[in-house]
Amino acid sequence: MAKEVNTIGVLTSGGDAPGMNAAIRAVVREAIAKGKKVKGIRRGYAGLLEEEIIDMNAHSVSDIISRGGTILQTARCLEFKEEEYQKKGAEICKKHGIDGLVVIGGDGSFQGAQKLANHGINTIGIPGTIDLDIDCTEYTIGFDTAVNTAMDAIDKVRDTSTSHERCSIIEVMGRGAGYIALWCGIANGAEDVLLPERYDYDEQALVNHIIDGRKKGKQHHIIINAEGIGHSASMAKRIEAATGVETRASILGHMQRGGSPTAKDRVYASTMGCLAVDLLCEGKSNRVVGYRHGEFVDFDIDEALSMKKEVDEYQVKICHDLSNS
Ligand code: ADP
Ligand code: F6P
Hints:
By secondary structure, the protein is an alpha/beta fold. It has helices at 20-33, 44-49, 83-95, 107-118, 143-163, 179-187, 203-215, 232-243, 263-281, 301-306, 313-324; strands at residues 7-12, 37-41, 53-56, 100-105, 122-127, 167-172, 192-194, 221-226, 247-251, 287-292, 295-300. Helix 1 packs parallel to helix 9 (263-281) and helix 6 runs parallel beside helix 11. It is elongated, with a radius of gyration of 22 Å. The protein binds adenosine-5'-diphosphate and 6-O-phosphono-beta-D-fructofuranose.
């Protein structure tokens, strides 16, 4: 029989992402609308273990939908990978009356949620990461904002690159995944995009491409390099030496994680927050919310963690075609 949930906890875990506040707001307000109490857990699983738990009401989430970051703050907590601390986390939830929990984060955070579910706390995960590297979903909170932020920054680098007739290597985030790089590759019309999923270490091909471009009168050459490949500074030195074209590296870094979320991130994060609460109210547990084939859906966490997704082959192809014709 479905267990009735009375008090819903919410936490953010792992790297922050713009739109997490919209999800927190939705969890709090949807839960209140359904007659539930809500508690916020600060600093992810680290804060749970330290009992950093606060009562939340509709007013606690006023004025946050447009703000980047997470008002609950976030952390990485290595001890939570150990059974002893997972049990302690579940006991702390029970002590504070939290019988349903919404975890906003990535795959690692979902594994923590799964462990809490095994210890009797109904849990639902919401995908929150700028990296888009969660296999069960085509959308993760923060990706859209991060891509737009990176796109704007790359446009600016391109202006100065053109003035100085340089090659620019611009490194974008994404951990081991190349989604931000690929989207910027298309959105910025970059000459080359280096994706961890496809990288063949053929620097000579880059060198030839730059020299060919010069012969055709190109005034800049933008290479978007994914963090998963990295080494942009040393790559720039080698490319400059091999081509004779002045080359600079820019690493965009944490600016990609901040800023006011786009409309898409606000709306999708709000929808996911409400859906997570609705699932808890239906007595569901050990599930994650996702977006696939144009619909918001939910999966068993075990199933979600075993799924695999690939970079979109057609996007990779058009990204290459559009910069090489
Ligand atoms: P993300 O959630 O973005 O993938 P991490 O991989 O850093 O980020 O995980 C965030 C947090 O989730 C970790 O610091 C840890 O507290 C928790 N976590 C990660 N892996 C596990 C696991 N195997 N079991 C329990 N908790 C985990
Ligand atoms: O997962 C989000 C992310 O920004 C990755 O793109 C990056 O690899 C990592 O987090 C950086 O983590 P930190 O904030 O700990 O430097």
